Model the fold of this input.
Amino acid sequence: MASITTTPFDVTVETPGTRAPLVTGNNDYQTVTDKVCHLAEKPTHTIPKAYWVALTLCLVLLANLGICIGILFTQGVGVWGNMSPVFWGWPIVNFVFWVGIGHAGTLISAILFLFRQNWRTGINRAAEAMTIFAVVCAGLFPGIHIGRIWVFFWLFPLPNSMLLWPQFRSPLLWDVFAVGTYATVSILFWYMGMIPDLATFRDRAVTPIRQFAYGILSLGWTGSARCWHRYERAYLLLAALAAPLVLSVHTIVSFDFAVAQLPGWHTTIFPPYFVAGAVFSGFAMVATLLIPARILCGLQDIITIRHLESMCKIMLATGLMVGYAYAMEFFIAWYGGNPYEQFAFVNRAFGPYWWAYWTMVSCNVISPQFFWIKWCRTTPWFIAIVCVFINIGMWFERFVITVSSLSRDFLPSSWGYFKPTPIDWLMLIGSFGLFFTLFLLFCRFLPVVAMAEVKSVMPEPDTDEAHGE
Amino acid sequence: MSTAVEQSDSQADDCTEDQAVLAGYVAQFPNPSALKKAASQVRDAGFKEFDCYVPFPVHGIDEAMGIKMTRLPYIVLACAAMGATTAIALQFFTNAFDYKYIISGKPFFSLPANIPITFELAVLFSAFGALLGMLALNNLPKFYNRLFLIDPFLKATSNGFFIAIEAKDPKFHETDTKEFLNSLQPSEVIACLEPNQNVKIPKALLPLAVCIMILGLVPLVIVARMRVTPSTTPRIELVHDMDYQPKLKTQRFSKMFADGRGMRPLIAGTVARGDLRHDTAFYEGLLPDQADEVDRSFLLPNAKKPDGTSVSLETLPWVTQIPLPVDEKLMARGQERYNIYCSLCHGLSGKGDGIITQRAMQLQAANPGVGTWLLPIALYSEPVRKQKVGQLFNTITHGVRKMPSYAAQIPVEDRWAIVLYLRALQESGSGNINDVPAEIREQLNAEPKP
Done:
C-alpha cells in the first residue's frame, strides 16, 4: 500500500482554505496501526524503563491507598479530619474533584463527536479511559465515606426488613444515580469504541493468550460493512445520550451543594459553573496524561501538537468561564443584599481560608492566561506545567466551596477550622496512584488510540478524495 | 481439493468431517475507493449475500452496497421510554405510595423533583439498548467465523479491504462468480472454505450443562429455605455493628485498674449521688437522735440478737409522726398505691382477704399439709394499730417475717403515703358509727351497697 507523503509543516498554522492533516509524518493505515499497537505488542523485557519506574511508583501509591482504606474500615471515619461543623471534608472534595476530571473524556468523545470535530479521534480513547479511571477514583470516596461500609447497599432502592425506601427527592440520591449511570454509560461507550480496535489486536496477536483474550473481548468483530453501519448508528446514539448525560452529572453534583441553604452554596450559578470547571480540570488532566503518554507510546504523529493546542484553547475558554463564575458569585452576593451571603464571600477571600481562595484564583484564572500566547500553547512541557497548576487550582476550588462555607455555618458558636489528618493526605495521594496505575495498565494492554476512527479521518491513499478535514 | 458447490441439507450430511466445503469467495482490494466501486458492481449484479470488510467505516459504502437504515434507533427509543417509565414508577411506588415521605409539607409526588432520576435511568437503559441492540443485530458475539481461517483476511482490521460473496447466495456459481470477482480488478481472489461443516457440539455436553445449571441452583435453594425456616440459634453476624461494644460490666475483671476490679468501690469519704440518706426519720422511720444506737440488722425480717433471742421491733425508737406534710393528696396517693401493691394479699379493707390469700387458702385446704401460706393478720387488729408509723414504714421497706420487702417497688414517699392510708384503714376497720362526724353519717347510710 502506498503511503501518503505529507511535506513536514507546522500543523498549528491555520491556512485559509486548507485543513492541516490530523496525522503527521509519512503514515498510512498500516503504520498507524503499527504505532498504536506498538507498546501493547512489545515483549515484556523490551518495555522502556520509564514505564516500569512509573508503574512501580504508582503501585506504591496504590498500596498506600489500600492501607489507608484498611485503616479507615477498621478504625472508622474518625481517622479523617471531618469534625463539627465541617462534616464534609476531604472525601467530598476529592469526589467532586475526580468526577469533574472525568468530564473531559465524555466531552471529547461525545460532544466533540456531535460537533464533528475530527481532531478528537486522536485523543478520544485515552480521554475516555481517563474518564473511567477518574470516575473509579471519584466513586471510591463516597463509597468509603459512609462509615458502615458493609451496608453500602442502603444507597440503592432495595426492599429491606426496615420497610424503608431511599428519599428520592434528595440530591444525594440523584447523585448516586447520576454517577452510577455516568460510570456505566462511560464504560459502555468506551468498550463499544474499542471493539474494532480489539479485533485489530486479536488479528495481529501471535501468542495464544493474546489471541484468546482479545478474541473474547472483540466479540468476533470482522469489520463487516453491514456491522459498521449499525455500529456507527449505535455510536452516534451513544454520543447523543452521553452528551446531555455528562452535563447532567456535574449539574447534579452541584445540586448536592446548591440545594442546601448554606450561604455560599445556595446559588443558581452552580450547575453551569460546575460543568465549566469540570471540563476545565478534565482537559488539564487529559493533557497532563497525554504529554508523557504520546512519547511513551511513540504516538507523536497521531497525538500532534495541534491536538495539544486545541486542548489549550478549550482550557483557556473554560478557564475564563470559571473566572467569570468566581466574579459573578461575588457580584450576586453584593447585589442580592443578603448579609449572610456577603459574609460568606468576604470570608472566603479574606477569612481564615484566604490562602486556599487565592491559590484557587491564581491557578484557575491566572495560569490559563498564558495560553493566549502561541508558544505556550505549542510547547508540551510548558502545557504540562500549567495543567498541573490548573489541577491544583481545581482541587482547591472544591476545597474552598466545601470547607469555607461549612466552617462558618449559621451558629457562630459552632464555627471551627478544618484540619486534615495524615490519612486525608495519604488518601488523596493514593487516589492518584489508583488513577495512574489504571492508566499505565491501559497503555500497555488496550488500544490507546481509536485506530479505526483515526483511519477514517486520514486522507485516502492513491486518490484525491480526502476524508479528513 | 473437494468442494461442494451447492449445499443442501442432505448433501451436507453426507460430507465427512474433514471435507472442506466452499463457502464463498473473498476478494481483496487495494483501497477504499476501489472497494466502493466494486461493491456497487456486486450489488448491481444482483448478489444479496455479500459483504464488505473494512478496517474503518468507509464513507459512502452503505449506498454502494445498498444497506438499508438500521432499526437500532427505534430499539433505543423503546429502551429510553422503558427507563423513564421505570424511574417514574419506582419513585412513585417507593416515595408516594409504599413509604410516604413527609418533607416540609410538600406533595408526596411531584414531577420536578423526580426528573433527574428519570433522565438518568432513561439514558442508562437506552445506552444498554444501543450497545446490546447493535451487537444483537450484528449477530455478535460470534467467536467462530470461517473468514478468520483465511490468512490475508486478518488484514481486514488493519489495512485490508475485502468483498466476500457467500455460497448461500442464489446467484452464486463456483466458477462464474470467481470470474466476476476477478473482473472487478481486485488484488486477489481467495476461495473461502468451511472445513468444520459437520462439527457439532458434543451431545454429552448438554446433560452436563443441565447438571451444572441445576447444581448452580442449590445454594439459592438453601438460602431461600433458610429465609423461611425459623431458627433457635442466634443469627450469624458478620459485622457486629453496635451490638457488642467493649465496656465494663458489673463483676467483670479489668486490666485498667491495679486491683483488677471492673466495678469501682467508693472512694473513701464520698457518697454516691442519692445515697446520702441522712434524714433517718424519712428514710428509715427511726428517730434521728437515737438512730445511731440502732443495730440496722435488727430491722430485717426474722432478725436475731447476738444472744440468740429474737428482736422485739416494737422497742426500737420509731418515729410517731409521718415526716411529710399530711394532706388529702397524700392520702389519695396512699390509697391508690395500697390498692396496687398491698390489697392483693391484705384485701382492700386490710382484713387479710386479698385474692392471693384466698387462692392460697383454697389450695391449702384442697392439699392438706402442702402449703406454708400464712394468713396475714388484719391490719386494723390491735397489735398493728399499736405500732408506730416508723415501724409500719419499716414493714414495707424490709418486710416482716413471711412478708417480703417492697423497697424495690415502692419509692420512699409512696411508702409513707401507704402508711398514712394504713392508719385510715385502721380507723375504719376498728371504729363504729360514732366515730363518723355527725353531719356525714346520713351520707354513709344513703350510700347504695354495691
